[in-house]
Amino acid sequence: MKTECELKVEDLRCNCDPSVFTFKSTAEIEPLQDVIGQKRAVQAIDFGLNMDSPGYNIFVTGQAGTGKTTIVSDIVGNYARELPTPDDWCMVNNFQDRYRPRAMRVPPVKAALFSKQMSRLVDVLKIRLPEAYDDKAFQEQQAAVREKYRQQERAILAGVGKMAKEKGLAISRTPEGYQVIPLVAGKPVTSDEFSKLPDAEQKRMETEIQVIQDGLKATVGEVNAVRQEQSTELEALVGQVALRVVTERMAHLVDAYRECPTILVYLAEVKAELVENVEDFMPEEDDGNPMKAMFMPSEKPSFQRYRVNVLVDQTETRGAPVIFEPNPTYLNLFGRIEKRAHMGAATTDFTMVQAGSLLQANGGYLIMEIESIITDPFAWESLKRALQNKKLYIEDVPAGMGFANASLKPEPIPLDVK
User: Fold this and answer.
1) Of residues 269 and 39, which shows the higher confidence score?
2) Looking at residue 20, what DSSP letter applies?
3) What is the largest CA-CA distance in the chain?
4) Among 252, 372, 416, 418, which one is most buried in terms of CB atoms within 10 A?
5) Which contacts (CB < 8 Å, 24+ apart) does range 298-301 have?
């Protein structure tokens, strides 16, 4: 039997007494830090975040519009802020093989500074090295070396010169080498004058000339050896000055990064490269020929190889990075090697390597939409391989996929991302 229960209008609403609240507006209240109604989900995410063993990642599923992305971002962000900030990453030139640039780890928030310091070093050396070679002391040292070997050349040539003079001959230096010239009354004779001499005198002179030429061949070998020694000593002198100037200008960098072995190794390689290619810093000599500059333009030395390409800079990061990738394509995840057009061809170098979201999240967390990543087979397989091997390769899309040919093969980067 039904019992009718009639409700009054007052019973259809819940009255709240404002006097129970201690605030006038909700703007005065701190936002809730907890997730309402998702206790098990929060516990599962927290459990996954605390799993440090490799291979443990987190998959979140649920109905659309329930705030999954917001909840996950907030929880991961709060957790990441308590973790240490990971290192920056740079790409630098490999002076032994420029097609295999090196990835270099740099202390947090130091990458941009280090890049500027290296650029500044090159700019300073463009000024200081020419000044060092224009210095009076260096010029005097060079002159002393040249004079020393010039005297040795004179001493070597003096013997054969004396022999030639005794036989009525002279030795003349020409652009093509040394030439033996007959003398008559102490003066050189021309070919016409020589042909007017008696046959017996011509034959005698020709015999004497051949003797002197034979002795001159051995003498020229000694002279060339002396000149080679001079060239070696002058090169060593130039190298000593370059090493001194470069060492002085790099001292503050070596001291600043004394606790970073990888940077110290790189700086040592840069120093050796700078000293070996010191001529790049010398000003070009202008011979005043405009036609030469028009038709035979000289290629200016490139200082690009000394630059530092900053891939990841943690300056704005507090704690571990949390990166949300809305479009997880292969290039967006793994990075790319950009190209530039030069004389009808596409060229590239280590300064055009760009980081993807995986490297930006290295040492922290990467959040992606699963549906977007699994619909791209190449990106999905590459992601699984990178997570399994804990190595990140930044490279062109392989030629086997039909998109591009590989150009550079940068050094793989250790990967630690969840």
Assistant:
1) 269
2) G
3) 162
4) 418
5) 301/277
Determine the 3-state secondary structure of 43 from DSSP: helix
The length of the chain in residues reads: 418
DSSP-assigned states of every residue in 63-117: -TTS-HHHHHHHHHHHHHTTSPPPPEEEEE--SS-TTSPEEEEE-TT-HHHHHHH
Per-residue pLDDT at 286? 54
In this structure, are residues 335 and 356 in contact, taking their beta carbons and an 8 Å threshold? yes
Q: Which residues, 6 or more positions from 220, have their beta carbon under 8 angstroms from its beta carbon?
A: 177, 178
Q: Rounded to whole angstroms, how far apart are CA atoms 30 and 41?
A: 23
pLDDT, tens only, 53-68: 877 888 888 777 777 7
Collapse the DSSP code of 312 into the 3-class scheme (helix H, G, I; strand E, B; otherwise coil) and give the result. strand
If you ran DSSP here, which 8-state letter would residue 11 be given? G
- What the block records as the tokens of 68 is 């999954």
Which residue's structure tokens are 């550079």?
A: 408
Reported as a single tens digit per residue, the pLDDT across 175-198 is 666 666 666 666 666 666 666 677
Amino acid at 412: P
Higher pLDDT among residues 301 and 45, named by residue: 45
**239 or 42, which is more confident?**
239
Q: How far is CA 252 from CA 77, 121, 256, 303, 310, in A?
A: 37, 10, 6, 21, 21
Q: According to the model, what pLDDT value does residue 295 have?
A: 41
Q: Are 342 and 48 in contact (CB under 8 A)?
A: no
DSSP 286: P
